Amino acid sequence: MQLLDVAQSNLNSSQQQLALTKQRFELGSARKTDLLKAEVRYGQARVDVVNNEAALKNAYLSLKNAMGIVRTKRDFTINDDLLSLDTIPVFENGFESIQKFNPSVLAKKHQITNAEYSEKIAKSSRLPNISASANYSGNSEDFQTLSNEWDENWSMNTSLSFSVPIYTGNTLSTTIQQAKLNVRKQESEYLTQLQDLSVQLQLILDQLNYYKEVIPINEKVLASAEEDLKLVQQRYSLGSASILEVLDAQVSLVSARSSLIRSKYDSMIEQASLKAILGTLDTDL
């Protein structure tokens, strides 16, 4: 939306410049080529506004579709404020957060734990199997006798069995070996995942530090471009500057505004990416 505001501001400036150039042309203090250049610049500014309006509409519909409300009456509001950069963490603290909170890392840790349990279960199949049983039974012609004379009519049997898996072919060994390999596989994937995430983290931190340095520069460039346009317009109204100088100053101002907005938006995207990789996108550390 802010890029549309920039385009609209540029259109207003181009319209004012066109009106001034027409006035000077009618007074004979401006050439026909100056008027044509101002008209071209105004037309380009109008096209830029139309393009930005279309881009905003497409982005709005795409977001509604992603939210699943494209064919409903539900709507949303967008906070278009460009926030300042958060404190950029050092790599070590960020990597520690990844290991503690990143959802994919936590899921992989659970997979390793499950694989280790499966290995223990497979190994337990080699252990001896001990089982015991006991039963208590009674025998009599009538229930009254059975219930009164417990010692004579009742008997107790117990049994104890002990089995050792001597030979099971290759099935048990294969199962244990597969369980071991699965543990190693999960551990290897975990280390690879951490390595990949550490690289991603470093890239994001580098980008954030880049924006931390570039955004203030873009702000200074914008201030200079605004002041330059004012001075050139004043000189043009006095006849001491050409229309090309005015148009160049307008282009520089639009470029400076757009660059600042894009750099701020890109920094916000990188901040969201940082929170996502740290596992703190929806929570505060």
TrEMBL record:
Decide whether keyword NAD is in the record. Answer: no
Primary site of residence: membrane
User: Which InterPro entries does this entry report, sorted A to Z?
Assistant: OMP_efflux (IPR003423), TolC-like (IPR051906)
Q: Which PANTHER family match?
A: OUTER MEMBRANE PROTEIN TOLC (PTHR30026:SF20)
GO molecular-function terms, A-Z? efflux transmembrane transporter activity; porin activity
Q: Which SUPFAM superfamilies match?
A: Outer membrane efflux proteins (OEP) (SSF56954)
This entry carries the following GO cellular component terms, namely: cell outer membrane; efflux pump complex
User: Pfam families given for it?
Assistant: OEP
Q: Which organism is it from?
A: marine metagenome
Keyword field contains Membrane = yes
Which protein are we looking at?
A: TolC family protein
State the UniProt keywords alphabetically: Cell outer membrane, Membrane, Transmembrane, Transmembrane beta strand, Transport
| Location relative to the cell | Cell outer membrane
